[in-house]
Amino acid sequence: MKNFPISKSRRLRSTPYTDRIESQGVSSYTIYNHMLLPATFKSLEADYLHLKKFVQVWDVAAERQVEISGKDSAELVQLMTCRDLSKSKVGKCYYAPLIDHNGLLVNDPIINKLAEDKWWLSIADSDVIFFAKGLAAGKKFEVEINEPNVNILAIQGPLSDDLMAKLFGDQIRQLKFFNFNYYEFKGRKYFIARSGWSKQGGFEVYVEDNTAGQDLYDYLFEAGKEFNVRPGCPNLIERIEGALLSYGNDFDNRDNPLEANFDRFMNLDSEVNFLGKEKLRKIREIGINRKLMGVKIDHDTIDMYCEKTLIDDENNIVGYVRSAAYSPTFKKVIGIAMINKPYWDLKTQFKIDINEKIFVGTVCDLPFI
Ligand code: THG
């Protein structure tokens, strides 16, 4: 398939960092929450190798915040997620699947608890704000819901602690995974969490002031020279290896959280009230008949603009590949696929059509690394 340039417009939103990443050589974008999200700089593989060794600064402003505040905000946030937030604490981040009344997935945000009555849902690519507003109206909740001007910069990679400590001081090294706090740099305070969409470690700075963000961006590159800092972005190869799931790619509103391996983030036996609870209990009782698993394919390239079907020797459908990329580490194509129950066995072999040629592969566990 040929690649075409994207025409920019107001509807396809830029970020406060777009000018900077374009002058630094961003080479492709994807669209996420109606916003530009960089997809490659040098190349998928070069970006991958650099991310695993050094430190990168990412424009992930497309990870938008849905701010929910007010008297009934905790009740509304809980209504939307199957994760029990009754013991949640201010200063912590919670990865939490959002579920509709049919028990199907709506989004998988990181929920940041800013106060007992103020939450930021740091969303993946679906319009959570309308879902939240619809529920609030229907339930006559006393809440305010809006999308604040927050534009995240992620600092990711094994040298991210060293770079961040150089700007914010050594105390930032003490910040625990999925906690956030406020740190000062040049007289300004920044909301910083230890999180990010890579398995290489790092931070996310939730920037509320465009100028403060642009200044920070420039300082990170100035201070980062000694750590070989580069601009980067969520990397398809690295995130598949680590099984960081992507809403719209690996799962969507036709899948339930049990099929998407979200068991760790579900509390179906808790007392709290959330949408789809009874449906999900029933699904758990009956058992699912497909789930997300890994696949390895003996080939060196794949392009993924649609789901790809996997078949066995008798042409039965084994499942569908939803994300895939060539991994220089495994020297194969690796992917995340929805696999039908008869084929969950790890010895399962399948056939796949890539550019009108047939290749073979096997089913495996997630994550790859
Ligand atoms: N950071 C922020 N917002 C986001 C993302 C992010 N919004 C969109 C998208 N990413 C949401 N999806 C994910 C998916 C996985 C993780 C975070 C957000 C993640 N998972 C860890 C894992 O699976 O190893 C840890 C989860 C845990 O143990 O709690 O980090 O990246 N701001």
What does this structure look like?
The chain has 369 residues and is α+β, with helices and mostly antiparallel strands. Helices cover 20% and strands 31% of the residues. The chain has helices at 18-23, 44-51, 73-80, 128-138, 160-168, 210-223, 236-241, 277-286, and strands spanning 28-32, 35-40, 56-59, 65-69, 93-95, 98-99, 105-107, 110-115, 118-122, 144-146, 151-156, 180-185, 188-193, 202-207, 230-232, 290-297, 308-311, 317-327, 332-340, 349-354, 357-364. It has a 6-stranded mixed sheet, sandwiched between helices. A 6-stranded antiparallel barrel has the order 16-19-18-17-20-21. Strand 12 and strand 13 form a beta hairpin. The two termini are 30 Å apart. Bound molecules: (6S)-5,6,7,8-tetrahydrofolate.
CATH architecture type of the domain at 18-63 and 150-240: 2-Layer Sandwich
SSE sequence, one letter per element = HEEHEEHEEEEEHEEHEEEHEHHEEEEEE
Any low-confidence stretches, pLDDT <50, length ≥5? Answer: none
Question: Roughly what percent helix?
Answer: 10-25%
Assembly form of the protein: single chain
Shape: globular
Tally of alpha and pi helices = 8
CATH superfamily of the domain at 18-63 and 150-240: Probable tRNA modification gtpase trme, domain 1
Please describe the biggest sheet, giving its number of strands, its sense, and whether it closes into a barrel. 6 strands, mixed
Strand order of the largest sheet: 12-13-14-11-3-15
C-alpha-based Rg, rounded: 21 Å
Structural class: alpha+beta
Number of strands: 21
The proportion of residues in beta strands is: 25-35%
Q: Could you please say which CATH topology of the domain at 18-63 and 150-240 applies here?
A: Gyrase A, domain 2
Summed over residues and divided by their number, the pLDDT gives a mean of 97
